[in-house]
Design a protein that fits this description.
This protein has ten helices and 18 strands. The protein is of the alpha+beta class and about 450 residues long.
């Protein structure tokens, strides 16, 4: 192997490994020793750090999550994080991050030597992320456990049945963090652009509004954090997007305007505690309406108008041949949500690729369907998806194609015989071809302030 990775044990997800760090935690004025559990993913470079909860179920309290795409650290329990990684313990944070990165890179390299499927593509993507770029180009053959001798705990587990994504409910929903790619040869290694679709657990927006409302997948105010399968597919023709807003006709005739002004004035005065003034505003509205009746012609037309309102008929039009001026205007009524559709034809060329295609289809169908609660009394929202067009030269978001808000998959169709006949392979009973069609709808609207000046992207 290219580098010793002793002390890192594989988890149920073959891409995830666990390491243990013995670190200091400042409780009041006293430093105590605690065990920090690190779960790193050798495929995408993310890692999550937990404070070990001992014999209780699960890993423990989440301290932070690190995402090398953007070099982002998302803090879980702020009080516990501060006690272990700030102030006099600040150096521990750099040590844990650096040693975990070194081990993750070593595990990714070792996977290539073990002929692990998709491992070369995973390593290529890993060293091109912001968090690993310098480390990947200047990797030194060192033992991360020697560097970490002062921090690593003595006894390491050989395996564990608990993962952050475990669900102990009766109707547990599957899913792991893994990359499923068609074709299985690395699109990114050859510089090809591709579409990336990643599933996340849905998180209700709650009752917060305005600036308090959490949104998106990135940043300190992100709404969606728990990730599952990532599907990578080649670019397709006919990529398009349509942005729209809702405008509608609205009318306000003179009589309605007088009533509206009176009501608005009365409500404003009443809100200030001036109830006598509120009555005065209503009186002024009646006075204004009475002034309209000073003209003989107008008096007759108003009588016909109110008679029509009373009986629900157009008395004014029938008796005078006129209508009251509606003062019609087209007014903004709200944003609209965009939708997107994609079609892909998948033709597996060997047994491994057939297995990948099957996992893709299963993952999409599982992640888009509703989930049952433990007693099946309620249904939980399906998972939502992060869609990205990836530019193959640097494996970053494509700067000349649109970005996406979080999306729900509204339909997923599979045609098992797209060539017009039933055909399977001899040794592997996979279909010779599959045609999948998927439709997505954004769950959040787009706002003008999200288009920044001088941005190097197309924006939403």
């Amino acid at each position: 192997m290219s580098q010793d990775t002793t002390g890192w044990s594989v988890q149920t997800d073959p891409n995830e490994y666990r390491g243990d760090f013995n670190i200091k935690k400042l409780v009041g004025t006293v430093q105590t020793n605690v065990n920090a559990i690190v779960i790193t993913n050798k495929a995408n470079g993310t890692h999550t750090v937990y404070e070990d909860n001992g014999l209780l179920e699960g890993f423990g309290t989440e301290l932070y999550n690190y995402n090398p795409d953007g070099n982002i650290v998302s803090i879980g329990s702020k009080d516990d994080f501060d006690a272990m990684f700030t102030g006099q313990n600040a150096a521990q944070f750099d040590t844990v991050v650096k040693n975990t990165k070194a081990a993750t890179l070593a595990l990714a390299k070792n996977a290539i030597e073990l002929n692990d499927p998709q491992s070369k593509a995973n390593l290529t993507r890993l060293i091109n992320t912001i968090g690993f770029k310098s480390l990947g180009k200047n990797a030194i053959e060192t033992n991360p456990n020697e560097i970490n001798a002062g921090l690593q705990a003595g006894l390491r587990p050989t395996g564990t049945s608990s993962r952050p994504n475990d669900n102990q409910n009766t109707f547990a929903v599957g899913g792991i963090r893994e990359i499923l790619r068609y074709p299985r040869q690395s699109l990114e290694a050859f510089g090809y652009d591709y579409i990336e679709i990643t599933a996340y657990d849905y998180v209700p927006s709650g009752l917060d509004t305005g600036k308090k409302l959490k949104t998106g997948f990135k940043g300190n105010n992100r709404r969606f954090t728990r990730r599952y399968e990532t599907i990578q597919l080649p670019m397709q023709p006919g990529l398009s997007e349509s942005t729209g807003v809702s405008w509608g006709e609205n009318s306000l005739n003179a009589i309605q305007a007088i009533g509206a002004q009176a009501a608005q004035g009365a409500i404003t005065r009443a809100g200030d505690g001036d109830f006598r003034g509120a009555l005065g505003e209503l009186g002024e509205g009646v006075t204004s309406l009475g002034q309209l009746t000073q003209d003989e012609g107008t008096r007759k037309q108003l009588a016909a108008y109110f008679a029509g309102q009373a009986v629900g008929a157009n008395v004014l039009g029938r008796s005078t041949g006129q209508v009251i001026n509606p003062n019609m205007e087209l007014l903004f009524s709200g944003p609209t949500l965009r939708s997107f559709s994609f079609n892909f034809t998948l033709t597996p060329r060997d047994a491994e690729e057939a297995g990948i295609v099957r996992k893709m289809i299963r993952a999409m169908k599982r992640n888009m369907t509703p989930q049952r609660s433990s007693e099946a009394l309620f249904l939980k929202s399906p998972r939502i998806f992060e869609l990205e067009y990836i530019f193959g030269d640097n494996n970053r978001e494509h700067p000349f194609l649109n970005k996406f808000k979080p999306c729900a998959c509204t339909s997923f169709t599979v045609n098992y015989t797209p060539d017009g006949s039933y055909m399977t392979y001899r040794d592997q009973p996979s279909m010779t071809s599959y045609q999948i069609s998927m439709s997505f709808g954004e769950i959040e609207p787009i706002y003008a302030d999200e288009y920044k000046d001088n941005a190097e992207t197309m924006g939403f």
